[in-house]
Amino acid sequence: MSAQRARTNIREAYAALVGEDYDPAGAETDLLAKAHSALHGIELLRVLCEGRTFEEVDPTLCVAAAKTAEGGEAREQLTRLIRDQASWSEASSAAPTALDADQLIGLADARDEALKLTQGDVFRQLYELSESVLSDPSWDDARLCPACDRSGGDSVLDHVRGKIAAFDAAGAASKATAQAWTEKGWNQLDDLEKLGREANEPAMLGAAKAAGSKGNLTGEEARAIAAWVAILSSRADAKAAELALARAELEKSLPENTPMSAIPSIPPRLCCCWAEPRHLVVGLRFEERKLLALYGATYQRYRERVPPLLPIRLS
Predict the structure, then answer these.
(1) Are residues 179 and 118 part of one domain?
(2) Could you count the other beta carbons within 10 Å of the beta carbon of residue 152?
(3) Cβ-count burial of 156 within 10 angstroms (0-12 exposed, 13-18 middle, 19+ buried)?
(4) Does the residue 88 lie in any domain?
(5) Are residues 151 and 245 in the same domain?
């Protein structure tokens, strides 16, 4: 820690404990006496201050006293309960609603139906190329198929355009499914699945992420995912309720928080910061003794010209 930082820490810790600004020009004994008096004024720490100077007060005992006054281990247990309850509640609240699930299933079913009228990308390319040929003014007979040279009673162009429309419908259904997957948060349920999944159960949401983000879910897959999320949400709600009940029971047995709970952290900060500059000076003295023993008059002459903390030559 630099000397400047140590001074800043002393000033902040002193003001927090004593309630007045730290005066660096003041006598150290007076400043420490004020710090000791302020600490002694805290009832739960008074017994730790009696018969001791401020620097002799054990910071770890101050912290232990505060924890005991606030409930000790039970208070720490309450903190864990609050944290865990929040985690389960947040995970459950992130889950899509039943209406969102119905929407996803409906879109996936619509995509399935649209895909039944298509035959893959190769056929789409064939239909698009046929449409291009049939639409060309040089192609005289709209009933003559450019792919097989067969002619029929109906317009081949209308038939090809109907096929292309089916491909477009399938693409639109995939896009809508992907949009619903993202907007309703189906891709953001990692915490819910991590908390609610049993060790022997597969991570269905993790496996479905890629298909969902591309809109390639089948109706069957969408139903399985919706059912799985409903199970996870139910488990999360039950766990959050269980933790809330345990929290309420524990809170009844604990004393009210004391506004002095933050004060015990001040003495160790203040003692540490106050001691840092002293340690620096003491260390310099020992180091200079070593250098004098090693280099004698040479180092003595160097020391007369160069200060120890900021080694800039003076002459």
Answers:
(1) yes
(2) 10
(3) buried
(4) no
(5) yes
